[in-house]
Every structure is written in structure tokens, then in C-alpha cells.
Amino acid sequence: MPHFLFATGIENSSPTVDNGRRRVDEMGSCRHYELWREDFALAKELGVGALRYGPPLYKTFLGSDRFDWEFADLVFGELNKLGLIPIADLCHFGVPDWIGDFQNPDFPELFASYAKAFAERFPWVQLFTPINEMFVCATFSAAYGWWNEELHSDQAFVTAIKHIVKANLLAMKAILIVRPDAIFIQSESSEYFHPSSPKAVERAHFLNERRFLSLDLNYGHSVSAEIYRFLMDNGMTEAEYDFFMGQDLKRHCIMGNDYYGTNEHYVAADGKASFSGEIFGYNEITSQYYWRYQVPVMHTETNFEEGPKGYEAVRWLYKEWANVLHVRKSGAPILGFTWYSLTDQIDWDTALREDNERVNLLGLYDLDRRPRAVGRAYKELIAEWSEAMRTGSVCMMVPLGPCCV
């Protein structure tokens, strides 16, 4: 793995919605199945070294020990030919119909078998995100009731999080059997909850402890007494908790921290949370996560909606990049930066719950594969900073683009 990775990704979310009646496939919505060669060529031209990418799990994993590798063979063969490093994104918010959802206790073992089969099929792949944004996946599926099982309870959330993290851990172990030098990049949302009232302080404190849950379990980090009680009260057994605390996989991991303008929240007196916009920012919140786990860091997702002049997204790019440099200056080893995704997305403004076919202007390229202003700015940023990040000879001034002066 290079010393520092500039990356982008192909959005490959595939949850089910409407009580399982409809599957949202962002690769299909954004025409990647038709234009994958062009998408890879754009990524190569952009200058990124890595691409967060994976075949659709629901189309590839057809049953126990049954796989359809036709599309995966084509696309990963092309990535290898182009010299783009894939960060293999194996499960992105959805599972095949025959597995059901994240309440299924068989999911961890089944997913581990898929991960091992993938590693055997593509033994040259070294970097993996077995399950993307474990905390978000469990929250949206089993706490908010938006996706997949569409449940809305603490017990459903705990069930989902324990199955998702166990699946992630078993997948890492399975891949390491095939590729002992595999590196796992946990792309995980970095959150913070601000109390907006003295009456909200206790609830905000609880939510700020709970935000760490997926990574606590993944890295074998003891949870607080309050969170332990929450887990035990909602269906986790002592034996299950001991399983998570007994794992020793952190040394194979890079902690990917995702940050958007929606990652910080106000907590009201009634306990309800709403988006606060950026208050602390990536530097402060990522530092909290880093010092908790002391695992090398990568900025694995960010984006911003392009406005009428295109400057809003460019400003966000340079601001996030400045935060990456500040994280590095603070002493945390940060190994990469990602604008996500390569192209615009569809219906993420409703978290994929509504089929509006609304284009969200979040990509480096639009859906006709024309560069956006942020795409041109990212290409320039990569060209200007790659050598300095590779050698470590980095000036810590905040980088400003021409439209950010």
C-alpha cells in the first residue's frame, strides 16, 4: 500500500425499501453497469491511486456456496489492468433476498464465506472494506426503520449491530486465511451530538458513547458501563460481548472516518436529534476517534452538493483537505483522502427511501460523465500534493483554491 492514497469511489448502495418490495441499486441508477469502462478511465485520468469499489452483493452472492462472478471478473480485471488499487467494498447497506436482512443470525457466517470466496477469486486484491458504515447500516435499518428490516427499536438496533460487526470480523479472518497481508479499511461515519438544552445533556452523552459502538466491538475496545447495560438490556449476551472483546484484528486495520455536513447533530430536550451542520469538523471529531483506538486513519468519504456556481463543493473539498492536514499535524497517522463518489448520485436527499429519480449533484463528474468544478479542483489538488504526501515533506499551510480566496 502506498504511503498516502488519494481515492474516490463508485457508489454501490443496494438496500431494500418499502418493506422489501423495492431494491435500490445505485450502480444501476447511475448507469455504472453500462459505463463502467468509462468510469474507470475517468478515475485513472483524475489521478487517484485507489477506488472504493465492489460488485453488487445481491447479484453476486446467489446462495450458500453459489456465486456469479461474471461482472466482478470483468471489472476487477480492468482495474488491475489500469493499475487502480481497489478498496474492495463487499457489503454496502444491503444483503441478497435469500439472506433476508441484518436480523438474520446466519448472516455473519454466510458473509464470511462470500468474503473468502472473493479473496480466492481475486488474490491480488489487498485492501478491503468488508462492510461499509456498520453503524449507519444498523441505524438506518433497525433504529430509524428506513431500510432492509425496517425496524425501529433498541433491540432491533443491537441485533443488527452485533450481526453486522460479527460478519465484518469473520470476513476479515476469512480473508486473512487467503491473503495474510490483507489490510482492512473500516469506512465508518464519524458522528457527534451537541446538547441544545441543559435537559439534553444526558441524552447527548449517551448518544456520544453509542456512536462508537460498531468500532468498539470491531476493535475489541471496552464500552462504557452505560453502553454495556444498553447492550445487555437489548438482547446481547455476555458470551457475545466477550466474543467481540476477545478479537485481535486491530493491527490489520485502518480506521476510515467519513464526514459530511450531516454528521453533527443537535439533541433537543425531548431527546430527538436533528442535523446541526458543521460545528467541530473533521479534524476535531476524527481526533476523538483516533485517540480512542490509536489506529491509523483514512478520510474515506465526503462530498457536498454543487450549487449554481459550483463553488460550494470546491470550498468543501479544500476545507476537508485542510482538516486532513491538521489531523496529520496533530500526530495521527492519516493515510488517505476520498471524495465520494466519482459521479453524481440518485435520491440520496431522501436516504434512498423515495423513488424520485432526483439527481444529487455530489460527484466529481455528472451522470453524463462531464467533470464538475469539484472534479477539476480535486484533479489539481492531487497533482499538487501527491509528491509531498508520499515523501512526508508537507507544508502545514491551509490549501486554498482560486475560488476560495
UniProtKB/TrEMBL annotation:
One function term, GO molecular function aspect: hydrolase activity
Pfam families registered for this protein in UniProt: Glyco_hydro_1
Keywords noted in UniProt: Hydrolase, Plasmid
InterPro entries for this protein: GH (IPR017853), Glyco_hydro_1 (IPR001360)
SUPFAM superfamilies: (Trans)glycosidases (SSF51445)
Designated name of the protein: Glycoside hydrolase family 1 protein
